[in-house]
Amino acid sequence: MKQIGVGLIGFGTVGAGVVEALQRNGAVLAERTGVLPVLRGIADIDIERDRGVKVDPALLTRDALSVIRNPEVRIVVELVGGTTIAKTFILEALRLGKTVITANKALLAEQGAEILAASAASGADVWFEASVAGGIPIIRVLRDGLVANRITALYGILNGTCNYILTRMEREQMTFDHALKEAQAAGYAEADPGLDIDGYDTAHKAAILASLAYGVRVPMERVFVEGIRGLAKVDIEHARSLGYRVKLLAVIKNERGVVDIRVHPTLVPVEHMLASVMGVFNAVVVDGDVVGQTVYYGRGAGRMPTASAVVSDIAEASRTLAVENRVARPAPYRGGELAYLDIGDVISRYYLRLSLADKPGVLGVVATELGRNNISLASVLQKEPHTSGRAVPVVVLTHPARERDVTTALRALEEMQAIGTKSVRLRIEDLGIEKNA
Length: 437
Ligand code: HSE
Known about the structure:
Bound molecules: L-homoserine
Largest sheet: 12 strands, mixed
Number of strands: 18
CATH class of the largest domain: Alpha Beta
CATH superfamily of the largest domain: Dihydrodipicolinate Reductase, domain 2
Mean pLDDT: 93
Strand content: 25-35%
Structural class: alpha/beta
Low-confidence stretches: none
Number of domains: 3
Distance between the termini: 62 Å
Shape: elongated
CATH architecture of the largest domain: 2-Layer Sandwich
Helix content: 25-40%
């Protein structure tokens, strides 16, 4: 049996999961691939802590570079995270011609060009299945499973923390702040929860998926991002009564070569499978021009789901390295520019919540202003105010309208003091489900 040496940089939650999975299923893996991956070194700043897995103490070191430079190590697994020291380790491994496996979505999304250039220069592969949607093998889906397709659309619930918060807000009628505290207490949120709740973690993952889908690197600056911070539970309730759930969704579409890529809280029809994705689970919908719609579901984070993705990369990389005279596979995506749709030009259906003065003719003014901006109403829901004389909440669902027109109309309405106050705008994605609304 051929053996391939593996070096692990970062022995945290996922690193320990990788060791556990290799110990548990290494033999099965070898049977399936014909190559046995063997751990040759594990580096971490803390080599004392008990991680719940037994390892030969001789493998442990605080010196990551010694593992990377060990001639017996042909695959370097980077699980340090962040965009500084992790990058140094990856570039050094690639410079030495070693295959790199990483879960580092922030690094790939923000500085992927440099990583891929180093990979191209040395001819060493970079594998990153664990960077998006944890245990769901979505990278493999785009690179292999759906290789026969042009990807027309992709929708993803890619952040478990946000989905957990939204689920708690809906099920327990919790406020956003309360649900965030629970997510932190349960250990789901990133150390800086802003990455999760302001949508950037999802945007990193969306940029990686779009790059794979279209073969060209999609820079983060091209992703329109709006997070779930400050989302009111009343909007989750109204959405639900109208047949929708609110999800933080990555939306990627390609219409005639123009890419629309955004992350925002989105109303999805309860009939669609995405609406049933609750708690920390992730899901991805991929529409291909040959296959039609496909859906992938599973745990997007955590020790063992992420380890599953890392170990699948170890298996794939081992198999690839074991093949003599192999034809090198082209890079998963290249540099260059795509054409992008400006957020103002996005055509979508909208959920609008307006707080209107409870006076005759007010709704008429709203309808007129929306109509003047080419926004057609699909349904209107007016709730009785709790106390007379107070503002009344009115929820409007629109037919497809242009984002820029919606912005103009809402601004005009907000400026009319007699009409009302602040408004809330959420976008709707029907995901191929026809609604009568
Ligand atoms: N903070 C991320 C999440 C971790 O909640 O999904 C996985 O990338």
